[in-house]
């Protein structure tokens, strides 16, 4: 129940983010979700795309340093306390969150949270035991496009 996420390491300089997204766009790769973090020297673009293996190849071909990681994509209530419900489940199970980001969609009262955790298999079991919906397949990704956007 994991989805592939690309982490693209970018020089912290004007135009590098645009160059990376342009390479993906020109290859016909659609970005589903992303976040950008920075340090003084470089940025990390974390992005979920429709064709992760193809995206990785095209980025590397164009001299971008990138790696693939697995993340959890969790549907949650888009209401006060929705995130707390998910965090409580993970905390009670001793799961550490390495990072997370979210996006809201047009589906009423629903949002998606993307988690990188230290014990993914345990997190999946915990969340499923609490009837939390996880996204994991290309069909799920397609649903993200058609339902959330």
Automatic annotation (TrEMBL):
What's the short name of a Pfam family annotated to this entry?
ACT_8
Q: Which residues form a coiled coil?
A: none
Domain ACT: residue ranges: 71-149
What name goes with this protein?
ACT domain protein
């Amino acid at each position: 129940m994991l989805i592939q996420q690309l982490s693209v390491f970018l020089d912290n300089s004007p135009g590098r983010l645009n160059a990376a997204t342009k390479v993906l766009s020109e290859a016909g790769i659609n970005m589903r979700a992303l976040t950008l973090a920075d340090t003084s020297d470089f940025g990390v673009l974390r992005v979920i795309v429709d064709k992760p293996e193809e995206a990785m190849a095209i980025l590397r071909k164009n001299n971008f340093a990138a790696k693939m990681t697995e993340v959890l994509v969790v549907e949650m209530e888009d209401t006060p306390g929705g995130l707390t419900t998910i965090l409580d489940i993970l905390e009670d199970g001793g799961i550490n969150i390495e990072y997370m980001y979210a996006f809201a969609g047009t589906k009423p009262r629903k949002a998606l949270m993307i988690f990188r955790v230290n014990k993914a298999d345990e997190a999946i079991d915990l969340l499923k035991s609490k009837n939390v919906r996880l996204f994991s397949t290309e069909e799920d990704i397609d649903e993200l496009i058609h339902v959330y956007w």
